[in-house]
Amino acid sequence: MSGTTDMILVNKDGKRIDGRTPDEHRDIKIEAGVLANADGSAYVEIGKNKVLAAVYGPRECHPRHLQDPTKAIIQCKYNMQTYSVSDRKRPGTDRRSVEISKITAEALEKVVLTELYPRASIDVYIEILQANAGTRCAGLTAASVALADAGIPMRDIVPAIAAGKADGYVLLDLNKEEDNFGQADVPMAIVPSTNEIVLLQMDGNMTREEFDKAIEMGVRGCHDVYKLQKEALLNRYSDGGDSDE
Amino acid sequence: MSKSRKVFPGDEIAVEEEYAASDGTFVSDGKIYASQIGDLVLDDDEYTARVESPNPPNILKEGDIVYAVVADIRKTMATADVVAKDGTERQVGGETYATIHVSKISPGYTEDVSKELRKGDFIRARVIGIKPSLQLTTKEENLGVIRALCSRCKEEFVRKGENRLHCEECNYTMSRKLADDYGDVQI
Amino acid sequence: MSKKIISEIRRDHIFNLLKEGKRSDGRKLDDFREIKFETGIIESADGSAVVEMGKTKVTAGVKIIPGTPFGDTPNLGVLTTGAELIPLAHPDFESGPPSPESIELARVVDRGIRESGMVDMSKLCIKEGEEVWMCFLDLYAINYDGNLFDAFNLASVLALKTAIIPNEQYGKGEDVPLPITCLPISVTSAKLGSSLILDPNFDEENISSARLTVTTDDDGNFRAMQKGGQGSITLDELSHCLDMAVAKGEEIRKLIG
Fold first, then answer.
1. Residue A112 DSSP symbol
2. Inter-chain CB proximity C12 and B147 less than 8 Å
3. Is the pLDDT of residue A243 over 70?
4. Hey, which residues 197-236 in chain C have their CB within 8 Å of chain A?
5. pLDDT confidence of residue A239
6. I need a surface site. Which of A95, A115, A178, B183 has the fewest CB within 10 A?
């Protein structure tokens, strides 16, 4: 959103630099149950983003002072690996990852039946192996699949995707160039059965009309992601897969 | 008398008028939804709707065999921390602090808890109650102590006789309620 | 913590098997688990690899960036190695600052690469005293089932071996491969009772009294070692560890070509 470029991000036929139409998402690959030690896990690729998510729990809550006697708490940790971006990222937590961890946990809180496990913790770990715009949505999408893989009782599975704006066009699922040189980015996540929004951020510049269009596009994109999430879980559990992994 | 199909969290599976919501489901506005991925079981004998999860959270229930470490010995009971449920690698969710009443340690009469169990012993036990607190028994043959260290020199105790342990390092002998596979436990 | 207690409960059975020269997963004492690897898995890295040894899985990535040389080595490139034991890999791993375990892992891997001269640092000088290439090697455990020393070492070697110096990105000409002189391979022996085993899994590692990591170069010479654990190693055991490190190192070097 910050940079400027002479690059034409969307040509006059409405084609984007990677050949997509404005309302088309990048190739998405989702796999459930990819880690042996985690209670549930998922691997997600959205375009060039590569993301792993692991879930542990419900388990004893650490630190203990965070325990809630009425329900389980969801603790999320989003981490970008050092070589996931073009400049080396310094290892460890920064303010951006703390914020993303917080809103991801809150989005999942809406669907997880936390009241079933008082005092426990459900821990979600998201590792970004390779980043190319849209990692928070890829991370949340992976985390939802990992939760379902872990058998955590939920009202629904949460999908996430971003909409945005570049060269004046409202676009679905911005790539790196559109994210860097476009005019707006709107990551969102929904509960598919009700279309309720559980994650929403926006930065840039949009009219009311453009924003409405972005939301409409994003909701449809989320439903596409949701289908792929279910397919991944079905693949995991239909061929007699080992449930302990 | 049951049908089975694969369902996902959020799938509507039945109405409350016909079935009672059971494991792996939740109810909203009179409708029953799946809360876990798994096989839907509509039981037409019991009139229950439930989802059988292939990878459910590991919550202890009566009858489960567990592994635990003895935390404390009191006059009428021992306390223990449950570390695992038999048959799964998954961490135990929910309560892990358990008690073993003096009458539930061995098949015979137990006069002194410390002659059957000691702090730090690894035990195999069966869950006999979960409310108001987790309760265990070690009465059965394959239940009881499965690994213990000599309380004098911390060398490993070797089994000697049905319920006796011997330390080959310092020649110390103690009694315990032993599981029948003490010395070669496979989990 | 609970997984370590389970290893303790398994101790008797594992030791009983070892007395007959067997291991719980059917391996011989000096067998590694099946090794799988893939390089170039992360496009945003200048070199990367994933390595699996049984259920242990790790990734390594290298970022190569121009920077200022150290004052005492004005014409040499710089290698920095970091390892993270992220919670995703094991229920007992916690997030936060690097643990002593992860620091030891990174330093032992670093030592093998550095002391073997695997990367020719003298070819990483851009302008003496002012600018050299800095190689940041970062290691992540993805699933932990023992022997991170050897898994991290192998992933590091594969990532460096396939790394590219990104000259183009910094306007310094054409991209070239990172100059590599040899393949240092570490082989870690673990001591359980009086038995020495290779490539310990999680349970074996937890009930071992000592371990010895030995890194050899292409000629089978020793380039780095690290003894760990609270137990001791006899001189005879040391000799056996060294023999195994040379023989196994050779095998693994052939495997990765």
1. B
2. yes
3. no
4. none
5. 59
6. A95
